[in-house]
Amino acid sequence: MPSTTRALVLFAHGARAASWAAPFERLREQTAARLPDVRVRLTFLELMEPRLPQAVAALVEEGVNDITVVPVFLGQGGHLLRDLPLLADGIRAAHPGLRLQVAGAIGEDPGVQAAMSDYCVRALG
């Protein structure tokens, strides 16, 4: 039975300013430190590289056969309702042996919301 090689792909929007990606890079680094046996990558929908399909193709070439995509978006807007499902369908078609899962938007998780609420309360001083 072939072994499973896993990856976690953080999927962000992207921006023109390179500095915009800094907190996402920190999130990737912190997550990777907690998952030493999992490849953790950061990808973007637009304006920055790498894009999701190219990053997944590179992971598949490295032998990854199980990928979970985590959208690091606050909510389920048009990009997550339309663009991401189309990208996922294209990836599945291009890599039929790949197990690809897409999680919900990170900002809709109750634990993440609680952490953001805590931050807002602390900001009040």
- Name the structural class: alpha/beta
Poorly predicted regions: none
User: How is the largest sheet built, in terms of strand order?
Assistant: 2-1-3-4
Main beta-sheet strand count, sense and barrel state:
4 strands, parallel
Q: How many strands in all?
A: 4
Average pLDDT for all residues: 95
What is the C-level CATH assignment? Alpha Beta
Distance between the termini: 56 Å
Which range does the strand content fall in?
Answer: 15-25%
Question: Helicity, in percent?
Answer: 40-55%
CATH topology: Rossmann fold
SS summary, helix count: 4
What overall form do the CA principal axes indicate? globular
Structurally, how many domains make up the residues? Answer: 1
The CATH architecture is: 3-Layer(aba) Sandwich
Topology as a string of helices (H) and strands (E): EHEHEHEH
Radius of gyration from the CA trace?
Answer: 15 Å
List its salient traits.
Rossmann fold, 125 residues, single chain, 44% helix, 4-stranded parallel beta sheet, alpha/beta
Describe the secondary structure blueprint for this structure.
Blueprint: E1 6-12, H1 22-34, E2 39-44, H2 52-61, E3 66-71, H3 78-94, E4 99-102, H4 110-124
Parallel strand pairs: 1-2, 1-3, 3-4
